[in-house]
Design a protein that fits this description.
The chain has 345 residues and is α+β, with helices and mostly antiparallel strands. The chain folds into 2 domains: 109 residues; 219 residues, Phosphatase 2c, domain 1 (4-Layer Sandwich), CATH 3.60.40. 44% of the residues lie in helices and 19% in strands. The protein is built from 9 helices and 11 strands. The strands form 2 sheets. Strands 1-2-11-10-7-8 form a 6-stranded antiparallel β-sheet. The chain has a 5-stranded antiparallel β-sheet with strand order 3-4-5-6-9, covered by helices on one side. The chain starts with a helix and ends in a 5-residue tail after the last strand.
Amino acid sequence: MLLLALPFALTVAIGGGRLIAGSEWALIPLLAVGPAVAAAIGGAAYTLAAGAFALVISGVLLASMQSPPSHHATEVGLVAVTCVTAAGIIASTVRRRREHELAHVRIVADTAQQVLLRPVPGRLGSVRLAVSYVSASSEARIGGDLYDVADAECGVRLVVGDAQGKGLAAVQSAATLLGAFRDAAHEEDSLASIASRIETSLRRQLPGEGFITAIIAEVSADGSKMELLSCGHPGPLLLGEAQPQFLDLGEGNLPLGLGHLAPQPRTSVTIPLHGYDAVLFYTDGATEARNSAGTFFPLDSCASVSNPGCYDTLVDRISQEITRYVGHAPDDDIALMLIYRDQSL
């Protein structure tokens, strides 16, 4: 309400200043400030109201003068207010139209994000899950980082990845991978077969040499072990009673989309989950975030990881800590997925 009253308050203040200063000060043209401010914060009708009010104040000031100003001075003041009001009405109309279009685009982007990155259930099989996604583009709200989970017969299968590039090309790559994973996770008998299905889809649907770094994992039905297949993606962070540590998945596994260049098939790694409370998957937006000094964010030793507390909120707390560390919105997309045991059991 205070902001909406600002143009009218400025008009009154300028009018009062004109009465105090006297006729020797040509302040009437300054009354155009009111409708100019109104155009910046409101619509066409609001701007017209502010302009009409400024013209009324101009008339009151002219009528109250003991020695009327010259016709030239009067015309300059009235024309200034009228022209600024007219220009403000046009500008505010264009601005409102663009705001409406932007709001529509954001609704479409939100819908696309719900389709591309479906909500992850809090529990699947023997494990609990939590995810966090932060897009580097506040306008688009979606990017090339991706994640998904599937409740297959053999256990919980998941994928976390990062598509090469930015913008719509990266979104298209992510959508292609997720579509292939959602089918293959229920039909294939191994992680290598899932990766092969994804490779086929990428070659068929994406031109050029685009690729996606990703990690595909499977938690056994009883929750005792996890198999991981890295496709050029960094290993997850293991959390438990011991010091947090990054899992080394070895080298040589090429990103998805470049598998045909590898001299040998990808190999997976299986680890026991006993002794680990949680496994944190992430994209490079988390580990490559830099502060003002150019130092990378210490994911394995940050405050949130060092004192994880409730795992239900850990990924959100990590995302917030990264933003504080960088000092502004992230320069790259950040996707975090946490697989953890139910602490109440």
